[in-house]
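Translate sequence into structure tokens.
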Amino acid sequence: VPSIDSSNGHQLGSLQPGLVTISSASGLQQHVRMSVWDYLQEQLHQLQLLPECAAAAAEQLPFNFWGGFVGYFGYELKAESGGRNAHAASGPDAAWQFVDRLLVCDHQQGDVYLLALHPACADSAVSLAVHSLAAAAHQWLQDTADLVHRLIAAAEAQQLHPSISSPCGSRAAVVAAAAVLAEAEPTVSVEQESQMSDVTAAAAVCRDNSSYHQSGSKQQQHTSIGSVQHPQVVLRHDRQAYVANVAACKEALVAGESYELCLTTSYQLQQLPDPWLYYKTLRSINPAPYAAWLCFAGSEHNQNWNCSSGAGSRASTDGRHERKACEECSASASFDTNYVHNAAFSSASSRGGITVCCSSPERFLQGGRGGLLEAKPIKGTARRDPTNPLNDAALAAALAGSEKERAENLMIVDLLRNDLGKVCEPGSVHVPGLIQLESYATVHQLVSTVRGLRRADASCIDAIRAAFPGGSMTGAPKIRSMDILDRLEGGARGVYSGALGYLSVNDTFDLNIVIRSAVFADVPSSTDYHSSSNASQLQQQQQRQQEHSQHSQMVMSVGAGGAIVMQGDAHAEFAEMQLKADRLIQAAALTLSEQHGH
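Result follows.
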């Protein structure tokens, strides 16, 4: 029996479908030997909205996520998208939560939306269980609406809303944020809970909701970063090793094996901040349009994190609309071939958890209503100078005019045009925005926009799979570049370099590139697994999971890197990699300082 990848059940060096583990809210598990892409495609095909419901939602909802799946595709899933299965990630190669309850806050308009999915029960012959699920969905809508109205009344009574300085816009958005907090924030101690009213919680969340459009000066309101000692970190490749890898990349370019290679490495922090506090700090000092908090907690984490669902997952994404997966656990929840209530699944399951704190500025791929696909690759990064506007403008101008940075961006645009061309109508792929400057709180970036119209015979999953992993994290040509990078990097990237977002039941999706992110994950303290060669693949996978749960530790990792082209300087590439990780490590330092009362 060949060796089995400890992450996803792939046969090493092969492209055999992986092992998908589905967990229900009631704790039931089901193992399916198939590709996670195929499983998602099958589920989304079954989850069809009633025509009248879809029409009403399209008219009334100014956002595309109407329920569906929230989660991530890790970089090593490239093994099911044409790449090799070279390294085993410590966590699942993909993890997704089926979300049938949503509370959506529109912070610009001050509107709050509540959505719930349930099986259609118009037919009198449907089972009692289906009617029960429908009744539970309506009850949740009523209960949550009552909560929002109570919070509005409390805010008005205490007259807190005029003093709140935030982009929330109106009282409704303020109290909706409090409702999100009530469901999402980790367990609060008895002493803290007695000191924090619902309305105070609403104010706290809204103050954290800093828009990514704010300039760098807003960030200085946080505790002075320079006064906080940075935590100890371990770098997978130190300066010497990273510079050597850059040189090896250039050798491959000279040999004609690639035009551009997106080299990465990773930091591992020795001191772990609280993940939720860390994310709140990160979004304060490094706001971004495709930021997200995603938590898949293992069974022993459910009590610690006060998860309301047996599946133990929470998710939110930032931007104009903030979405929260409000899972609801039912004792009678069970699997159904057509509808799974609050089920989570992954390409591998473990007792441990994984939390992604993401401040990504980059969209991987969006699928809109009508089939329009859009990718927004970033290539080209320069530090901002918030203290000197003239120097900041000069830095931006230098980036926009850099031959090297423009070359990096242009090659990835060509790669994405090719990726989208596999699933788009002939002649529809175009580039409405080429190498445009965008400025964020801490960096200037060069961003391009590539669009195309998805063919009628190509599904959303087909489109994602055709472009995955994102070309801005691989280089061109994609497959050969990934092979070279696998050899040089010497380890898995995991969630970093993958894609995170939602897959909606209305045939739309939106995924970012997982960069500028920290990942908290349970990893084996020893990778020495001893599986009998006579055991089946599933038995070996289950044995690995049991050993993982008995011998694991929580680690925090931060990935960073940059594109290598012939014009690049090795030491400058190392400095650019450090720049991209800088704010994530600063956020850890601030959070640890806050936790220790400094």
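Note: The chain has 16 helices and 23 strands.
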